[in-house]
Fold:
Amino acid sequence: MIKFQEGSETIAETIRLCRPKVIAAYPITPQTHIVESLARSNTKDFEYILAESEMSAASIVLGASATGVRTYTATSSQGLLLMTEVLFDIAGLRLPVVMTCANRAVSAPINIWNDEQDIMTIRDAGWIILFAESNQQAADLHIQAYKIAEKISLPVAVCVDGFALTHTFEAVELRDQKMIDKFLPKYQPKKESFLDPENPVTLGGLCTPATYMPIRKNMHQDLLTSKKIIKETFLKFNNLFSVKKIFGDCKISDGLIEYSGPNNPELVFIASGSVLGTIKSTYDYNLRQKNKIGVLNIKSLRPFPDKEIINFISKIKPKNIAVIDRSISLGQTGILFSEIKTACYGKAGVKIKNFIMGLGGKNITPKDIQNIVINFKSKSEFQFVL
Amino acid sequence: MIEIRIHGRGGQGTVTAAELIAEAAFFDKKFSQAFPFFGVERRGAPIEAYTRISDQPILLHSEIYEPDFLIIQDPTLLKIKNTFRGIKKNTSILINTEKDISSLPLLPKNIQIKTVPATQIALKILGKPIINTVMLGAFAGAFKLISLESLKKSILERFSQEIALKNIKAMEEAYNS
Structure:
């Protein structure tokens, strides 16, 4: 069914279709209409628990997930930062929690607008982190997120640009309940991995130096393994729901990265989230061919698609790369930029430059994008686009 | 792609107006998008909201700088220079005012400007100065960008039957004015 509605409402309706049993959230700023809509659901299908802070909301879904049920929470910005300690626990306990992060700037100074600083700051927590480019992708990614999380026993954060997507009205196809039920059957926790009075176990007990490190290594390997699961889930979803490519020049699309543009491009933009739409609108199919411009979407921050990026570079052969970061590791560079440079170390003879844009909701215009293309050669390796 | 920027004051339903236009365009089988300027919500503060309509999927997530249409819900906003930023030769403007265009200060020259006494119509039919749906009726009537039928449908979806029908009556009067 195609509906015209706000991004937040689209996500809330999709979450209801995924049939979680427990939802917990803290409803004050920074928050979106997602949990408002879920709280208003007149249903006995799930319990909505009003928390007194984001840290409590995260703790509630941790506890609920540990009893072996499907859970959901959503937050942003300061709320995500307040959850940080519990986010590490959720991942370490291998609980398949799904969370929406409506990406927003962090304080100080106070700013309620969109950038990606919040999620980038918790990238080492052990969560799978996926980015939506549009409201349709946001809806579809949440359905896939449960599938991925429950298969590999790791939590998934679905990142949706605050305001730019969450508060924007556009038409989306709401997926059919029966098809979702087929794709995402009732959650069956793995034996002895959840709290069950009939079968008592301890989760998250003390680990000595002898056992802690192998467990962390195991988590890391499972995050790497999740690449395969993300790819398979993406393909399975697209087949079942007949998702069509909307870009005629889309050459790579595997769930981790997506490339639209010509072979041997003069310049490739690398970014994540809704700014990709602005780039693809500024350089549409014809202009991409004419000006030899490509766009690479990093859909998964964790696991990081390093090998996929190297394969993309050797297959498509870009001359120059502009990495757009809407976050910064203060005192270093943009975070995506340093990840990409690490992935490319010693392997790719390509010029890579970093553009910090859109911090605290600073609007990114088609002119900003054109300016990067026109003046790329004279730009330094790192700059703020103010 | 057609870009519409709506200016109003907090409490005048500016954001709702942008959403209703976009939804009407959706019912007209076009691609559309609506979003507010993400300001801090306060009654009486200047508010902006944006609508894009296209025959192609809309990917752009930037604010609207050079609108094809400008809808000004509150005549006191005419004094603010920012209201007219980015207007082009072919920008069309719709203003809520009872006054004659020639008596309005600071209007850009050589541009298509239409006026509608939306506050008067709203007071007469709704009994309250709620002008957003009246402005939408005038907008649909003046520029024929969205159909009256689709506008009605989006209003019926949004509001309770009683409120929707009153608003539709006010909207139709503005459409035909």
User: Anything to note?
Assistant: Chain B has a mean pLDDT of 94. Residues 161-176 of chain B form the longest helix (16 residues).
